[in-house]
Design brief:
eight-stranded antiparallel beta sheet; alpha+beta; five-stranded antiparallel beta sheet; 293 residues
Length: 293
């Protein structure tokens, strides 16, 4: 069963432990955003997931996981995900899909993927820092929360890059797998809440930029294994660049390089104090174009 060990164990922990099962405190309202502060998500990096509960838009992150992003693009382009169900959904945790059998036992006909739990970041990577606790650096690569080594370490490495990895905040998209690290294939999950124990254990390939409310509305199981009876369904999944222009949504996200983002991040830090987490920053988003199919 895909993700039958690591994530299953994690689901028990999140159901039993109150620290991560609680809703995050609301972040301060975003300041007014000037036109130049918006970043348009490239159509080839926008996954459009239409479901029986509404539309979910995921920004893909090829900088973090190029192999997994390519797999998602391939399967979406071939209609592999159309009609598939959210077979495993655990409240306060995550929603899982991508199994053509709808049982947790299936996968695509393509080979399993090599794990991409971490990546290498250089000075050209579009990374914006928001905090630096104990020698680490927390920030954003586009819409994804990331932890990395400081830039100063780049001078000491042969490739002039440093170690970095995505963080499992709400909306982050991860790839399900079995016990073996290199066993991800087609099943994926979207986080309903933060769960940091998954960091560096499951490949992150994107983040929900619109529709987190839809993810949280998907029918959840009352059982510890999360298997859903009468699950919700994905009706169509496509990369935006594969859709006709008339059916293609347009998404703009607050640019993390902007002054408006710095103001937003500082407000979140001040509001949370010592409890601040990069997961406390919600990026404003504008969506235009075609409605859900």
């Amino acid at each position: 069963m895909r993700v039958s060990t690591g994530l299953a164990a994690a689901s028990v922990l999140i159901l039993a432990g109150s620290a991560w099962a609680q809703e995050a405190a609301p972040t301060p309202a975003a300041p007014a955003v000037v036109a130049s502060a918006w970043r348009t998500v490239a159509p080839e990096n926008l996954l459009v997931i239409d479901t029986s509960k509404g539309r979910i838009l995921v920004e893909l992150a090829p900088e973090l996981a190029p192999g997994h992003v390519e797999r998602i693009r391939l399967l979406a382009g071939r209609g592999f995900y159309d009609g598939q169900v959210w077979h495993r959904v655990i409240d306060q945790f995550m929603a899982q899909t991508g199994d053509p059998l709808g049982t947790g036992e299936g996968q695509s006909p393509y080979p399993d993927l090599k794990a991409e739990f971490t990546f290498r970041r250089d000075s050209q990577t579009p990374f914006t820092a928001v905090a630096a606790p104990a020698g680490a650096v927390l920030g954003f690569l586009h819409s994804l929360p990331v932890q990395t080594q400081p830039d100063a370490y780049m001078a000491t490495t042969a490739d002039k890059k440093v170690h970095a990895w995505g963080l499992y905040c709400p909306g982050v998209a991860g790839m399900a797998r079995d016990e073996a690290p290199d066993s991800a294939n087609s099943q994926f999950f979207l986080m309903r809440q933060a769960y940091p124990s998954l960091d560096k254990r499951y490949t992150i390939w994107g983040r929900v930029v619109s529709g987190l409310d839809v993810v949280r509305s998907l029918k959840a199981s009352p059982n510890p294994d999360g298997i859903v009876t009468g699950p919700d369904q994905m009706t169509r999944v496509r990369v935006a660049s594969d859709l006709p222009q008339a059916e293609r949504p347009s998404v703009q996200v607050l640019d993390t390089a902007s002054a408006q983002f710095r103001t937003l991040a500082e407000a979140a830090r001040q509001a949370k104090g010592a409890d601040f987490s990069v997961c406390d920053i919600d990026l404003p988003v504008q969506v235009a174009g075609a409605p859900a199919a």
